[in-house]
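Lab notebook page, bench 4
Experiment: in silico fold of construct C2
Operator: M.H.
Input chain length: 368 residues
Purpose: comparison with the prior construct
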Amino acid sequence: MGKAVLPSTSDLTTLETDILQEIAEAHDLNALENTRVAALGKKGRISALMKTLGQMAPEERKAFGQSVNKIKLTVSEALDMRKADLAHAAMSERLATERADITLPVRPGALNDGRIHPVSQVMDEITEIFADMGFSIAEGPEIETDDYNFTKLNIPKEHPARQEHDTFYLADRDDGTRLVLRTHTSPVQIRTMEANDPPIRVIAPGRVYRCDSDQTHTPMFHQVEGLVIDEDTHMGHLKWVLEEFAKSFFEIDNVEMRFRASHFPFTEPSMEVDIRYSKRGDELRIGEGDDWMEILGCGMVHPKVLEHVGYDPKKLQGFAFGVGIDRLAMLKYGMPDLRAFFAADLRWLKHYGFRTFDVPTLAGGLSS
């Protein structure tokens, strides 16, 4: 058996050059992998050279092995560099051809889905209007004493409003008296006058309670009452305030009101106020037409009420008015049944409710 013919130095150089050329010409990662296997795989050309080392004399084996290892190292480095270049090129091509739609909307969330209840919105509208007129906001407890809810408002003991068919009473206290769920926000007026010296200009919005329930009445509802006390206030001021409020709230240029004589224990003279309107189908148009609709009660503060809070009725006078917030909401936004306001129906709230950032302003329009 003859001795194997070993590759010469020029053969090794040619092999190295050929393999490096194949690496350079590999057009993708798959072609480059085939080139690697053909050169460095178990049956590759460089691997085959390593198997011939056993047939060499010791003095030849060392030099030949060093040459082959040098080629192997050069080829490995060239493979790594070419692989990096091809991977970068493949990624660039993928980025140029593939698209990820990052504009798909996310879930809108609570700020979009949530709604402000019409009562809260209308209360904010009323507050905005009267704040522009110089009124402050006054608040008081919803559980009141008989004294604040009735007596100091000049409501006599025999008045029907004191009866249990009209008023919610709490259990008897140790002294035999009973607290009540306030039937109006007028007690706030009493507390405000007791705590402050004139002049006074406040509105008192809030919840009130009465034993009543039908399409236009609920056991719990909302009122806003206004109070002005000073030395010179008269009914002309009252009329102007109510007209300006109605024009601003219903967002109309003109409004026609009529004042009818009435009776409230805490005002003298007392009046109910009607507003002109017309109805076209299910639509109410405020400020036009031939029909009249009662919207609020008002009057000049009764002298006895002033005396009950320590004011001198010979020096001071003023006016007061009260209007149902829920009723105003029904008139302005076309809600037919007051009971639905408190039914906790999310479908109703989504239909009639207001978005979170629909903050009413006189400059931007209350309901725009």
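Observations: Residues 146 and 177 are 8 Å apart (CA to CA). The chain is about 40% helix and 20% strand.
Next step: discuss at group meeting.
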